[in-house]
Design a protein that fits this description.
By secondary structure, the protein is mainly alpha-helical. The chain has helices at 57-67, 71-193, 220-228, 271-298, 303-313, 320-342, 348-357; strands at 2-6, 16-20, 206-209, 217-219, 242-243, 250-251, 267-269. Helices cover 59% and strands 7% of the residues. Helix 2 packs across helix 5. The radius of gyration is 74 Å and the shape is rod-shaped. One of its GO terms (molecular function) is zinc ion binding.
Length: 366
């Protein structure tokens, strides 16, 4: 605690000083000028608002003795207090400076620690970035290597694909050539051995005339039209001698009036020729379609191949020659079945009607 002591000497030289006295504050005493023997009255201690224990006379005497001191020692105490005040201020300032230096050092250490942490974080970040860049570089190199490998493999596959296409083209050309050769052979065989001498087309449902004397085969419709074209419209019988249209062999004349014997029917089915012709045309149906599609896709330009292709095209599925042959074959079988079933009992007038159904334009009449 600090005590304020007033200088007993009057005048403007009086000053107030703060004196530190062991944490207790001494009472302020005002002294008046007068004889040196005059004593000051004892100063009672201030009491707080709270109740305190009663003060004994001995304690009051001790307090009076403490307060009433000689004049000379009091002045010495004030001088001592006045001399120690600057020292205390200096000590406080030094203490403050020490504290400031300590705080500065703490701040410097804190800044250095943060700087070190920042440097460490920067180094770790830089190291991580370096590792990542190195990893990315390795991956890029690996991707380039894989890309080069894929490019080479693609080129190799392209070359192999081109080679396969060439081999496939050669194989297709060979198949087309073989198909054309087969088609030519089949067409040639049909033309040489199975051409009808009446319509000059491939025979449909072939039938033969009197095998004992002739044996030549013709289309069922063609031979019926030729045979019944010689019948007379008035009597329904044959007056002229019938000869084979191919070899001129004399044919037996049927009995005009029923009943007739079944073996006197002038037509006999050629089943062997029928089977061979049907198989050959069925083969042309598929082979011709494959040949025409392959030749069109490969762009055949040879004349022979083109002719064979056109010839086989009409015999493939849905071709004009194939459909026309099927119609002639169907109708010939139906007419021959009708004639064979009614030959023994058919009347001459019915024969004339049969000729009309066959659309024979040149029936003989008198």
């Amino acid at each position: 605690m600090l005590d304020i002591v007033e200088d007993p000497e009057p005048g403007p030289q009086a000053k107030r000083r703060r004196v530190a006295e062991g944490g207790t504050r001494a009472p302020v005493t005002r002294r008046r000028s007068g004889p040196a023997t005059q004593k000051t009255a004892p100063v009672r201690k201030s009491r707080s608002t709270r109740r305190s224990s009663p003060v004994s006379p001995a304690e009051e005497a001790d307090d009076t003795q403490d307060i009433e001191e000689p004049k000379t020692p009091r002045r010495r105490s004030r001088a001592a207090h006045s001399s120690t005040a600057p020292e205390d201020a200096t000590a406080r300032k030094e203490e403050q400076l020490k504290q400031l230096r300590k705080d500065i050092r703490e701040q410097e250490r804190s800044l250095k620690r943060k700087h070190d942490e920042f440097d460490s974080a920067s180094k770790s970040t830089q190291t991580a970035l370096t590792k990542r860049e190195s990893s990315i570089t390795k991956k890029e190199k690996e991707l380039r290597r894989m890309e080069n490998q894929l490019t080479k493999r693609m080129e190799a596959l392209s070359e192999r694909e081109e080679g396969i296409k060439k081999h496939q083209q050669k194989a297709d050309d060979l198949v087309v050539s073989l198909s054309l050769v087969h088609t030519d052979k089949v067409l040639m065989q049909l033309e040489e051995h199975f051409t009808c001498a009446l319509c000059f087309d491939v025979m449909a449902c072939p039938y033969s005339l009197a095998p004992s004397t002739c044996g030549h085969s013709f289309c069922a419709l063609c031979i019926m039209k030729w045979f019944f074209s010689h019948i007379h419209e008035d009597c329904g019988s044959w007056h002229d001698v019938l000869e084979c249209p191919l070899c001129r062999a004399v044919l037996p004349t049927p009995t005009p009036d029923p009943p007739r014997r079944a073996e006197t029917c002038p037509f006999t089915p050629n089943r062997l020729a029928d089977k061979v012709i049907t198989d050959l045309i069925d083969g042309l149906r598929t082979t011709g379609r494959e040949t025409i599609s392959a030749s069109e896709s490969k762009g055949k330009s040879k004349a022979k191949a083109g002719d064979s292709t056109l010839d086989s095209a009409v015999w493939n599925e849905g071709g004009s020659a194939q459909m026309e042959w099927q119609e002639r074959d169907r109708k010939g079988r139906a007419e021959m079945a009708l004639l064979a079933g009614s030959w023994t009992t058919i009347a001459p007038i019915d024969l004339i009607d049969l000729v009309g159904d066959l659309y024979v334009p040149h029936i003989l009449s008198y």
